[in-house]
Amino acid sequence: MRKSIFDLLERKGKQPVSMLTAYDYHTACTIDEAGIDMILVGDSLGNVMLGYENTLAVTVDDMIHHGKAVVRGAKEAFVVVDMPFMSYQASVEDAVRNAGRIMKETNCQAVKLEGGVEYADRIKAIVEAGIPVVAHIGLTPQSVNAMGGYKVQGKSLEQAQKLLADAKAVEEAGAFAITLECVPEALAKMVTERSNALTIGIGASSACDGQVLVYQDMLGYNAGFVPKFVKKYADLHSVMLEAFRQYKQDCENRSFPGEGQTYSISDEVLEQLKKEETERLLFKKVI
């Protein structure tokens, strides 16, 4: 049975929640089989799946396309789908309409949107429309240009005060969970202790009620930059690269496909085919 909001909230202060991203059916199946509690169909798909420089080019249609596949693959995990850039920023009406479309077309269990005080009215309206919301504060990738890059948030007094105000605002607006990204441990601990919402950290320490990572990062799926907060549980890039190189070599030296990957035909059938072909050629010459 799929996990519910109540199942997750019961874990607060007791047992941390696990969350990973997924963007396709097969990965969602595997993550679900591992027993991960929550799956995020993140707009990070812009970076890791579509090759964009950042998340800003991702569309609602992109999120729905990938969200559908993930929901089909996950039978027990609670699935959250990101609301991409400019799907909620312009107006409350846009926010509710796009959140409703995402939930209706993907059959996910919640949507996630970035921002605190300034978008609390969007969260409130979406929740009132019957759609669960995960808020996202701290480092918000959709605001990367305004923030001047991907930087730890909350280190100054002003930033820390802003983050605490954001956490309070999104919880009061109805968000059942709050993602804290790139936030100092002490500040994440304060938010977690003060909030009834579930806090989910990414670069925000184990003080949070749960953790989320981009699965390509934690699996070492590529050889590029990996954030400090990522723990690599595997080195799939090296494994895949070696496999692809071996495949290329086997193709070129004809060792693949080998006997084990090849289908056979009986000698009797083959001899009959040869006989018929010989007779056909002889007949053609006579003609």
From TrEMBL:
Keyword Methyltransferase annotated: yes
Enzyme Commission number(s) from the entry: 2.1.2.11
Enzyme class: transferase
Database matches in SUPFAM superfamilies: Phosphoenolpyruvate/pyruvate domain
Taxonomy, superkingdom: Bacteria
Pfam families tied to this protein: Pantoate_transf
Cofactor: Mg(2+)
Family classification: Belongs to the PanB family.
UniProt-recorded name of the protein: 3-methyl-2-oxobutanoate hydroxymethyltransferase
Taxonomic lineage: Bacteria, Pseudomonadati, Bacteroidota, Bacteroidia, Bacteroidales
Gene: panB
